[in-house]
């Protein structure tokens, strides 16, 4: 794929999927009903995330056998992950969402497709039709009736299959979802849990009293309402007509970016140079909207687990990520040294220490809000979902089902793993995309 943008391939819009059966799975052991506290980070992530895990045909494991093994493993896993079988509810007294761990179950769907895996086209290119492989949640259900998680196993004509997962983001961040998948794979192999989950979300509770010690320009307050309504989602719908392109940064082009960053006073990482490159392209492609002397900002998620004092357990199941931010004038991104931009990105991440993170959480307690910026880099690059070893092998490819957004640049792993580089999905108005594409290539020269 090189480092050049990929023109939109002809995507398969109809995967010819037929639902064969749909049922609920429940914990294999009776659990005591309880309410699970959700942190202020969890509160604003009340929307569904869909991921699809593609597997080639395996002569020892038919899709039907895989489905049966997954059912048994999931029922066992719903014991330590009891919240996953629960339902969201709004605590009017506390004015916040929580999970009623009531063992109401998770969805499990069996489906088949008339297509083979090869007929799906390039798996690396985000195809909105993949949502039909990931157990879409029914619309219109009341909050306390909506499953927090559903699974779907779809068999293909070639004998390969897809495991699709649709879960509410308040249940997991990317790191804890990876841990969940590792635990699922272990139970499917009749092995003990490698990483028992830590379900104590109060580890990220606000301080009493809340103490905001920073200004937090990266956060925006929600509109207040006199009635006790659940917080809005951070996902917004825009009607601007966008053009979508997939760019690839292979190991050679990432090395070029690292070389251009020589002179940076910090350790030069792959993520920091890629993020700086994408930020510069996005900011300068929209300078007709923002002048050269106006500020532009970029947000990206950082893992809090090792940053807090004391550190959170690595097995923490909730959303232990916050948005680091960096900002600069458009003129700096256009004329400044690339090494300086990488330094700004680095400093944005290192700002997120224990005190800053606690201040963000306390800000959420007082104001109810979510991050804002000119671009958010959402990275699935190194989450490692495709490295999970199931009894039937590792996935051929794993990807989220993405709804393209002008404000969000999504990083995907390339087929073959981290060593093969990273794919970048960009969505912009047509004129901006033309300039972005030119800048993307020029800055790699």
UniProtKB/TrEMBL annotation:
Q: Any keyword Acyltransferase?
A: yes
What InterPro entries does this protein's entry cite?
CAT-like_dom_sf, Plant_Fungal_Acyltransferase
- UniProt GO MF annotations: acyltransferase activity, transferring groups other than amino-acyl groups
Q: Which domain of life is it from?
A: Eukaryota
Q: Which UniProt keywords apply?
A: Acyltransferase, Transferase
Family the entry assigns: Belongs to the plant acyltransferase family.
- Which protein are we looking at? Omega-hydroxypalmitate O-feruloyl transferase
Q: What is the lineage of its organism?
A: Eukaryota, Viridiplantae, Streptophyta, Embryophyta, Tracheophyta
């Amino acid at each position: 794929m090189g480092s050049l943008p990929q023109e939109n391939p002809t995507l398969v819009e109809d995967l010819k999927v037929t639902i064969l059966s749909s049922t609920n799975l429940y914990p294999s052991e009776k659990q005591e009903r309880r309410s699970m506290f959700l942190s202020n980070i969890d509160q604003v992530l009340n929307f569904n995330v869909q991921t699809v895990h593609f597997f080639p045909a395996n002569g020892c494991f038919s899709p039907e056998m895989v489905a049966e093994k997954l059912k048994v493993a999931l029922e066992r896993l719903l014991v330590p992950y009891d919240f996953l079988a629960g339902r969201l509810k709004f605590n009017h007294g506390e004015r916040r969402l929580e999970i009623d761990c009531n063992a109401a179950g998770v969805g499990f769907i069996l489906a088949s497709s008339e297509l083979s895996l090869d007929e799906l086209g390039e798996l690396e290119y985000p195809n909105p039709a993949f949502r039909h492989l990931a157990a879409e949640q029914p619309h219109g259900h009341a909050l306390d009736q909506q499953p927090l998680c559903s699974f779907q196993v779809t068999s293909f004509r070639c004998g390969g299959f897809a495991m699709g997962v649709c879960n509410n983001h308040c249940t997991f961040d990317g790191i804890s979802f990876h841990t969940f998948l590792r635990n699922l794979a272990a139970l499917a192999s009749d092995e003990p849990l490698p990483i028992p989950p830590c379900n104590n979300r109060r580890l990220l509770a606000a301080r009493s009293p809340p103490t905001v010690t920073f200004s937090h320009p990266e956060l925006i307050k929600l509109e207040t309402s006199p009635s006790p309504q659940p917080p809005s989602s951070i996902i917004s719908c825009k009607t601007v007509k966008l053009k979508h392109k997939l760019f690839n940064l292979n190991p050679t082009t990432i090395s070029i970016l690292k070389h251009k960053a020589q002179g940076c006073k910090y350790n030069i990482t792959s993520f920091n140079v890629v993020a700086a490159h994408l930020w510069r392209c996005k900011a300068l492609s929209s300078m007709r909207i923002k002048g050269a002397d106006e500020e532009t900002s970029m947000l990206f998620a950082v893992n809090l687990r090792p940053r807090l004092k004391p550190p959170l357990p690595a097995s923490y199941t909730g959303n232990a990520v916050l948005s680091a931010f960096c900002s600069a004038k458009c003129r700096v991104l256009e004329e400044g040294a690339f090494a300086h931009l990488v330094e700004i990105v680095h400093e944005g991440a290192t700002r997120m220490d224990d005190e800053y993170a606690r201040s963000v959480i306390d800000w959420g307690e007082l104001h109810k809000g979510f991050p804002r910026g000119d671009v958010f880099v959402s990275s699935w690059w190194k989450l490692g979902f495709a490295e999970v070893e199931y009894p039937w092998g590792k996935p051929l490819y794993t990807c989220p089902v993405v709804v393209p957004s002008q404000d969000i640049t999504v990083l995907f792993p390339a087929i073959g793993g981290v060593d093969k580089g990273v794919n970048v999905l960009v969505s912009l108005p047509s004129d901006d995309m033309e300039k972005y594409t030119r800048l993307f290539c020029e800055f790699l020269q």
